[in-house]
Amino acid sequence: MKIRYDEALPITARHDDIAAAMRDHQVIVVAGETGSGKTTQLPKIAYELGQRSIAHTQPRRIAARAVAKRIAEECDVELGAEVGYAVRFDDKTSAGTAIRLVTDGLLLAEVHSDRSLKRYDTIIIDEAHERSLSIDFLLGYLKQLLPRRPDLKVVITSATIDVDRFAAMFNAPVIEVSGRTYPVEVRYRPLAETGADDQLDAIAAAISELPRDGDILVFMSGEREIRDAADYLLGKKYPRTEILPLFGRLAAADQQKIFSSHPGRRIVLATNVAETSLTVPGIRHVIDPGFARISRFSQRLKVQRLPIEPISQASAAQRSGRCGRVADGICIRLYSEEDFDGRPEFTDPEIQRTNLASVLLQMASLDLGAIKDFPFLDPPDSRAVTDGLNLLYELGAMHAERLTKVGRKMSTLPTDPRLGRMLLAADKLGCLADVLVIVSAMSIQDPRERPLEHQQAADEKHKRFVEPDSDFLSWLTLWKYIREQRDNLSSSAFRRMCRDEYLHYLRIREWQDVHSQLRRTAKDLGMKAGSPNADPDLVHQALLSGLLSHVGLREPDGREFLGARQAKFMIFPGSGLAKKPPRMAMVGELVETSRLWGRTAAKIQPEWVEEAGEHLVNRSYSEPHWSTKRGSVMAREKVLLYGIPIIVDRLVQYGRVD
Ligand code: CDP
Ligand code: MG
What we know:
By secondary structure, this protein is of the alpha/beta class. It is built from 25 helices and 26 strands. The chain has an 8-stranded mixed sheet with strand order 4-3-5-2-6-7-1-8, with helices on both faces. α6 (about 135-145) links the parallel β6 (about 120-125) and β7. α19 (about 430-440) packs across α23. The longest helix is centred in the last third of the chain and has 20 residues, at about 505-525. Mean pLDDT is about 90; it is low at about 295-305. Magnesium ion binds next to α3. This is ATP-dependent helicase HrpA. Its EC number is 3.6.4.13. Keywords: ATP-binding, Helicase, Hydrolase, Nucleotide-binding. It is an enzyme of class 3 (hydrolase). GO terms for molecular function: hydrolase activity; RNA helicase activity.
């Protein structure tokens, strides 16, 4: 391998300091703006020091591939020889690979088979400021491992956020590499002020405002949004302008295009991947609509809800920093300065956004030990931990502090644990096709709109989807309708239909996206979707196995339900069951506003609860008496689930009771 450094990269100026620090310390932190050379140069410095088995982690597959390719090129070796990458389903490494690019999720999974990470002499945790669950797990794991592996070198890199916290965690020196930057002028152009119709219109307006020469980077929230924007901007027929999309699922060759030289102007439409992990060269201007899809579950849980949310101030600063690397730049934010000022400073670390039951499940499946002993950078609070453990116990994922078989399977499913439990039950009961649709629906916001001024009209349109005993079945009815319409209508007619019938087009698309991803994952895991239209009783039993603490028993003459642990709830007015609530119900969600509401409800049978909640119910017996008719001692049985009397006064043979 030829190790050379580009004099123009800011990191090159600190080469000797970094090499010395790496030699003298077990852990070092390298901080610096995007584009300063951390990702591409640090593994070379480690190699130069004699390290021959370097794991270099990236938060995203697309970056792992691109970085490996780049380093291989710089060192004049073939990709897959001394420099390679390994991501899920794609391994381009060989026995002689010294620099191995991996996703942080993959390195974490390797802990399973290699508890001391013996195969590595160096671990570079890149982009640590992203603070995904995988990164936090890795940092905690390394913290525990380092005393046992005094020979292991660790390099943590970060944008200039959170740097001191990493340094404090490992008692490590920080080396800052900062490059020359040119001034960036930030302009605020909120839609309301510019009179733009929508975001695409606002992007086009921003493009016309920018100087005609100079590449532009536009941050979009997802693949679909990028495709839409690309179509729209191509329609504008800008002279000598190339429109380039950039997102994770793009074919590798297309991703690579952003690094190629080109005549004329280029407009790159990118997801968050261009915020810090990939440096798109030569950008002069940035357009930042101010949104991103923010994962609400772990890095691995891609199919979980990824709501589009306003980005933090730190992210906005990173985005504007993408220009000003080569010359003065302009960043146009499609929101107001007041909006910016009101945003949170940083995006919360994922561990604080995530369902703790799923964190605990991951920890148990990776054998990371008890959560209270794990050295997290930001430990979750203990009440939330207890709640999470209780939920795992309820779902049958843990028993006596150990992961059960069900739990192990659940940990491989990219869903919230409750939903994962439903899918497993559905697989067993042979109603997975239907439950996949319902579970996907539960992961998104309801696409049925009820605008305040048109509530009646909307209800009128939605009436035909209502199933009297189950809002879950209403989802299925709506799904079938949407499928039919989509097959029969052109895409513009379908959009129009959605608008006329008060259905939210983008949410429907999201529903379909989540569904197809989940179906694919289920298939990969060997589950059988089977055909739709299963027996509704089975569908409900499958759902119930994930909703045991969302069961309620209605007072005989009231509307209020007695729920788990004495909670009282009512069925949400938008539900098909609100007018005539059943005696016993389960609800998809319990939401606390002015009072506790159960959303998405269905009528259920006590026997289903008894069966699905076998591991949770309490049974008591009273009035044992001799029955001459039956020739045995009989008693009255009472079955309680979380304090809810599911079954009362059932006559049973006392002799059989243990
Ligand atoms: O990690 P950091 O953001 O500090 O920088 P880097 O990713 O190592 O990038 C250093 C330089 O290499 C930047 O100027 C990138 O534009 C360039 N680069 C490239 O041209 N092609 C790649 N595949 C990766 C980086
Ligand atoms: Mg980098």
